[in-house]
Amino acid sequence: MPRLAIDRDFLREFAALEKPVQERVEEVFAKFDHATHTGLHLEKITHARDQRFRTIRIDRSHRGVVLAPESGDIYTLLKVLPHDDAYAWARRRTASVNSATGRIEIRDSEAIDTVRPHLERMAATQQRAESAPLFAGVSDADMRRLGIDPQTLDFARVLTEPVQLETAKAFLPPTQSQVLYGLAAGMTPEEVWEELGAAITEDEFDPEDLDAAVRRSPDRVVLVDGPRELLAVFARPFDLWRVYLHPMQREAVEARHSGPARVTGGPGTGKTVVALHRARALAERGEGPVLVTTFTSTLAESLAAGMKVLAGTPEVLETVAVENVDRLAHRVFREVHGQPRLLKSPDERKLWSTAAERTGADFGPAFLAEEWRQVILARQIDSADSYLAAKRTGRGRRLGPAQKARVWQTVCEFQRDLRERGLWTYEQVCAEAARILAERDDKPYRHVVVDEAQDLSADKWRLLRAAVPEAHDDIFIAGDTHQRIYANRVSLRELGVNVGGRSRRLRINYRTTAEILGWSLELLHGESVDDMDGGLETLAGCRSEVSGFPPQLNGFGNRRAELRALADTVREWLAAEVLPGEIGVAARSNRLAEEAADALVAAGVPARMLSGGRAEEEAVSVGTMHRMKGLEFRCLAVVGAEADQIPSAKAVTPESEDAVTHAHDLQRERCLLFVACTRARELLNVTWQGERSPFLPPTG
Ligand SMILES: Nc1ncnc2c1ncn2[C@@H]1O[C@H](COP(=O)(O)OP(=O)(O)OP(=O)(O)O)[C@@H](O)[C@H]1O
């Protein structure tokens, strides 16, 4: 029985086809299985470089290009183009099997052969000027081991500059092009091999067997099982993440682990995508309910929307619950104690101040609140003695025994005040919920999948730990500590979440352009960031293979001028047919975000605050940098990137008070800017009034 496979690149182009052509494509290929049986006409192409390419009639003016194997029964739809273009496209190309991965590759052989002599001449001239070939340091044997075949090798040998590789990406076989990229970016052959790792199979494969190669290529080709699945794929042609996963991503999705596991990686590397696929895969195993959770409610909503798109069957959707950790905590708490009365932030400051007055403690409310959260609650300290003995890792200001005793007294006063008034903080609700679940033998979930894990506090981890039994594949974590934007630093191991040896790092950014990513990475240059597991995290090798425009940086004399320019920029984007919902505006403070939203509305641009609920298609989303976490926009403007907003003085402990916390706070502010800037997919615009933030790299 013939089967149809759809090439990833085609799906992206499908979205751009005119509606009637799209409909014809659906009709033609919906009949594909029985039509091929009864002689669906696949026409051979004269003068083709590769005889395995065929065309198929779509309508009077369009033809589809299909790769038809000599043996086997999988037909891969590669292109739909106007008649002559379809033939021209197919004649130039060849299909092959990558010798390292066994996966299918398509290349524009004619372009490679045409361009190569030009580059060769250029290289000869440059060699006279004594500049080395780009891959002078990589042996032929290493190239071959990495799957570079003779045609690509000949081509690579005449390259002298990385930019030539950029141009060649359009015609080289994609995996080989990625390998060359990695090598040109300074990765060693071993590092590139490691990156290919997940794609390398132990099996012997036949370089002529395209059918098997297609089956081995889930990152590039999706096999559809009939008209229903075909229509489902065509219905969401932009959501490539639903059907094609990078081998590293797929490995993370499918792996079986004896305990907790995690996936890390820089911004936009598909951690959320992996988390969602993983949740589906776990649900399909049928071992019990799956909880997908994260820090903010905004992100939980976007995860829920993603899950709906991905789920496939109602059973999966029913098995997977999506809610942010605070909501889970409140739900569990409510079931036992009813609705908690929550302490509001301004009241908390007052309570700390009065408690400190009563005990004569010479500490500010901010310090006391942090000491309570980061040390006492985080370590579940419940007596003066254990507080005296406790390590205060991450808290810079040293406290002598007398000072500690005073802090402890103040904390007891504060907690008594809370009890007397029947008030709870979020942390206490969470801790109580964790206690309730820890005592239950019947856990509400079998698996928990956590996204944006870097920001969860110790009490939230305890709650999640208590929500699932300790078993294989109990907890799956996705996160990037370079994107930590709250003060929670935890050691997973100490919290009973041991991921030792079960961690994978993703490196390819699918969201943003190389220009925006490269510039954003500079924001964190030289920062050393922990990995929540006793080591250091790295963003080495994080890269994007899409190029575009560099970020635009502009300073203004005052806010009015800056916001006027913002409105102009957003209008330009809209005029270029970017939809309002594809545009984001980020600011450090809520106040500035509101000002920006007002300025846009006043200029006739539909805009709404992200804090007001879910993003909408017909309005530009404006929000604080904190709200931007986990989201993405085609075009993003960061406003107020000036010295007195970023870092925000309010969020940074004075160095004189506590040097370590000061350094942590500064790093968090940097990370916040990094998170905001890496939300941009195509265009990033950063503006400020007066003096620019010291964190901004020099050029745009
Ligand atoms: N295999 C893939 N194919 C196509 N697109 C992908 C793939 N994986 C991820 N993407 C796309 O890349 C973008 C970033 O993915 P995702 O949000 O999962 O990354 P992330 O690592 O969680 O990002 P961040 O940490 O910055 O929030 C999304 O638009 C997603 O659809």
From TrEMBL:
A molecular function GO annotation: hydrolase activity
Organism of provenance: Lipingzhangella halophila
Binding site for ATP: 265-272
GO biological process: recombinational repair
Domain UvrD-like helicase ATP-binding: 244-513
Lineage of the organism: Bacteria, Bacillati, Actinomycetota, Actinomycetes, Streptosporangiales
Name the UniProt record assigns to this protein: DNA 3'-5' helicase
EC number: 5.6.2.4
Pfam families: UvrD-helicase (PF00580), UvrD_C (PF13361)
Domain of life (superkingdom): Bacteria
